[in-house]
Amino acid sequence: MSAAALETVGLGKRYMRRWALQDCSLRIPGGHVVGLVGPNGAGKSTLLNLAAGLLSPSAGSIKVLGERPARDAAQLARVGFVPQDAALYPWLSIEDHLRLGAHCNHGWDATAAHARLADLGLSPRQRAGKLSGGQRAQLSLTIALAKRPELLLLDEPVASLDPLARREFLGLLMSTVAGHGVSIVLSSHLVSDIERVCDFLIVLVDSRVRVAGEIEDLLTVHHRLVGTRSADDVAPVNQTVIAASVTDRQRLLVVRSDGPVVEPGWVIESINLEDLVLAYMGQAAVRHDPLAIAPMTP
Amino acid sequence: MTWLAWRQLRTPAAVAALGVLGLLIALAVTGPHLLNVYDTVVVPCAAHSDCSAVTAHFQGLDAQLRHLCSALMILAPILFGIFLGAPLIAREVEAGTYRLAWTQSVTRARWIATRLTLVTLVTAVLVGLLTTAVTWWQRPLDLVNGPLWNHFEQRDVVPVAFAVFAVALGALLGAFVRRTLVAMAGAIVGYFGVLYLVTEYVPNLFAPMRVSLPFRFQVTSTGAESTIGPPQPNDLVVSNQIVTGTGRVVGQDGAIGPNGNLGGFNVKGNGTAVFTGVGRCPNRIPVSTGPHGHTVLATQTALQRCVDSFHMRQVVTYQPASRYWPLQWTEAAIFVALAVALGVGCVWWVRRRLP
Fold first, then answer.
1. In this predicted structure, what is the pLDDT of residue A163?
2. Interface touch A103/B2, C-beta < 8 Å
3. What is the pTM of this model?
């Protein structure tokens, strides 16, 4: 069996006293398009920077394609990284960035890189500092792809793009890597980005992993339970309540259950990805927001 | 990786090279004339008695260019440290571009090693050109101006080693503080601090030569001057002390009197000599009568005879001129070694501690 694209055991990263990522144990098999979702500051960037070898762990271990990240040139060659805000040299032209890639990577695919930029209609002479956010993201992706990586890490690649550019970027990303067997890990704070392209989900909240798995499986084992306000709590048999909310007329639960759910008095519905993600994010809020557990005062 | 390192260095290196080239041209244009004047006017004059006027005129030639050279030789190393060394790592961290550079198929260790090596080479070549040209151009003036040691830190190979050290210092500080401006400021302070400490220490690496002679002085209208200096004009004086018969130091640096450096003794033109704790010569010394002009000589002789009774000696320690080159290479080697240590520190810090 080939090594996992990304495998972490008890991984943690601390800045001074603050933990940006804690107790993260994950195994992502190869060949997936992984969506890493969570609110801003949840630790998504930290996890991706650890995977790219730009940060070193404060606790636990991380293996990317079976090796320690950035262990040597060969390991670096297997991973493509598109950093947040597309880090580029502002005074270098697009052409120079491609030369940079060609000189710093043995497996550089110059033909593909030039073709890709031609498709995007970017002039090679233009300085990177003069490009729009979308163009920068595209150039950054082009450099990462021309390395012909086995794993592509993208840190909020579309965060600074408008909705149309967002859709275009993700579309181009998917069409470029389709059929190449490249694993992708992509972070975003928007579920809609993830929903469009990913088949594997990781929800990261408050520096901790809340849930991780193939999206199809996750949607199968999670359910929405709708009951009246007076309905009894569900029995904690082979199921876990992820989130609970009360409206004027009814109670809503999101539960995880590996077997069939049989709860008299409750209507059982399937769940969509957005509700699933929000349930896990809300869970964190309930646990950590003191207002939510404090008694209500008029 | 070399391509990227060179592409990043190209522009500042070109600016520095242009500056050096401009100066080289100015020196090449004016240098032959200076040499000519030195050979045909200054040297023949020295064979005669008084050529202070000729010397003064020669020293005034190309004064502005000479001031520029002096300033450049002091500042060039730290300029390279500030503009090539300090931003080397700090700028990448500030701009976030390390995330691009360090995720190509090049390890961080190679990235920093390549960049440091290239920037060091460029610095060494440019400062090497600069110091070679300035040393050649200044040679006749230096010979007129006194011991070659006066410009020891601004001539020959030492400035190259200073520059290489300054670049490595700037780079390491940049890696530490991750701010280009702070690294620049730190490099200035650190560079001159280390320079001061090491250059004070280096002459002591070779045990200085020593001469010890009875204390002799020459009375002038403002005081008195020791007549004993280093054995040869081009020797570097490390210390020059006046000691009593029991070995107590009562004066330093050969200059005595009101314009001299240290108290403890005093010789005046009117014929007074007070060496605190040693002895005192009378205010009025019998003066031989005769035509005017003999008075001072008589005072001098009588005073010297009186002071001689204190059995004071003047002890001079010095580095002979023949040690100029051994000391140049030694000091250069020390700074290159420091630069290598700082460079290794850079590699380690970039690998283990950044970002």
1. 86
2. yes
3. 0.84
